Amino acid sequence: MDLFASNRKRLTKEIHRHVKGDNDSSTCEYVLYMVGGESTTRYDSDHEPIFRQESYFWYLTGVKEPDCQLILDFSLSSTTCWTVLLVPRLPAEYATIMGAIKTPAQWKTHYQVDEVRFTDEIDHILEQRMLGNQNGGAVGAEPKNRTLLRLKGPNSDSGKLYEPPAVPSSLQDMVNDELLFPILAECRVIKSSAELALLRHATEVTSFGHGYVMRNIKPGMMEYQGESLFRHYCYFNFGSRLTGYTSICGCGPNAAILHYGHAGEPNARQTKSGEICLFDMGAEYFCYGSDVTCSFPINGKFSQDQLSIYSAVLSAQKAVYEMIKPGVSWVDCHKTAELEILKGLHSIGIVKTNDNISLEDLVELRLGAVFMPHGLGHFIGIDTHDVGGYLTGLNPPCSTKPGLKLLRTARVLKESMTLTVEPGCYFIDHLLNEALAEESPLRPYLDPKVVEKYRGFGGVRLEDVVVVTKDGCENFTLCPRTPKEVEAVMGGANWPPIRDEAPELRRLRLTDPTTAILPSPPSM
């Protein structure tokens, strides 16, 4: 629980820093009020899906159970913070169905908070905290100097608004819904050493899960069998009950569907020899997730066409890793990835240049967006698409240009940011048709005959989880990545290897003797 106490301390410190210059700030006191995730059932049934805590609440508490609430009481004149966890008052019969009911003392000990109360007391507690002094809380301020902080703000990935909880009408004039959101979101962007350790672990589990799939999948198997192998490996061996998102297991033409695997396309196609597979899957551990994509030939050997596209995408990853360090623009990283992919497509005749236009010019014309119609990557942490991509006033706005408008952040990189790097190259019919249309400004730079050859190919995406370090980056992902590595693992070779044949991928723990050898396949 030290992680969450540290997160609370960091948040209050950042609030102190943010309001330090305000008049009379030294006498200001704050009460932060937040609610956790609620228990739900599936539609009108009594079926209870597996509960997973709301991410902001998890960041500050580490509480696994639903229907809890949080109060933080702190002053700018002090470095201490009084933490109150509010829990549901459960009926006696709960113990029969769900297990023993924890006492307030047990809650307090388990989650290392200062006080535990019941959620049905919340209005009374808030009024006492805001309108009068409470022993153990912030004391000594006049009511007019107390502010009730609530979390309210937009998620730039989903477009949904985080709505604050209701408070008694007597406290409405003391509420501030503007201060907390950008500060707390930014706290989640910059990871602590403990958070980095969790993300590294989740990504190594994910990496070995992908390797396990490569070793065991065969032509003729169903896409969902690949997903099943991954989920079994991560849960059976490492206790990762949940995945961070719906697994994407597209083979052949399905590999060109960016978010394949949803309810309407549930990884249900039979694989065929000669196809490329694109598997995007990530384990979650302690609510910190990973997001890794591997692409590989289902029969274990790359064809020349597959190798050409795969090599272009791998070159894009390597070029981005050369760039990543504090102070570098993520938009520039994206454009570099596009350039490397266009170089690969140029080498096989899909893309054409002339004396008046270079591949760099074609990047600016946005030709790269035809083949990589998504952003280079995103922040990752408690959420797969983690918060902080676009915070009002804190980072550059989102571009309106093709491809660039799909970037989940346009920020300049900082140390301890964690992101995915996921360049891809896909052959998507409607995008190719638009680019080849008579009126398209991109048509002169594409060879329709060579493009036709690749229709139905699908796509290749390679996605790693990296952390920005003080002078570069570290790649947490330990998957087979080079064509030689992929073919070796699919042929039964041990993983991880004894020697790293691609140190430019920054997989610093790849040959660490403490990393796990893939467990043997389960008995069938």
Question: What's the quick description here?
Answer:
32% of the residues lie in helices and 14% in strands. Helix 1 packs across helix 2, helix 7 crosses helix 8 and helix 9 runs antiparallel to helix 10.
Question: What would your notes on this structure say?
Answer:
With 524 residues, the chain is α+β, with helices and mostly antiparallel strands. The chain contains 15 helices and 18 strands. It has helices spanning 2-19, 55-61, 94-98, 104-111, 122-131, 180-189, 193-216, 223-238, 304-323, 330-347, 359-364, 368-371, 429-436, 448-454, 483-490; strands at 29-35, 69-75, 81-87, 115-118, 146-149, 153-154, 161-162, 175-176, 248-251, 276-281, 284-285, 288-289, 292-297, 418-421, 424-426, 459-461, 464-469, 472-475. The strands form six sheets. The protein has a six-stranded mixed beta sheet with strand order 4-3-2-1-5-8. A hairpin with a 2-residue loop joins strand 11 (284-285) and strand 12. Helix 1 packs across helix 6 (180-189). The longest helix is centred in the middle third of the chain and has 24 residues, at 193-216. It is globular, with a radius of gyration of 25 Å. Mean pLDDT is 94; it is low at 134-142.
Q: Helical percent range?
A: 25-40%
Number of strands: 18
Class computed from helices, strands and strand pairing = alpha+beta
CA-based gyration radius: 25 Å
The residue ranges in which pLDDT falls below 50 over 5 or more consecutive positions are: 134-142
- Beta-strand percentage range: 5-15%
Shape: globular
Distance between the termini: 40 Å
Characterize the largest beta sheet: strand count, sense, and whether it forms a barrel: 6 strands, mixed
Side-by-side strand order of the widest sheet:
4-3-2-1-5-8
Mean pLDDT score, rounded? Answer: 94
How many helices?
Answer: 15
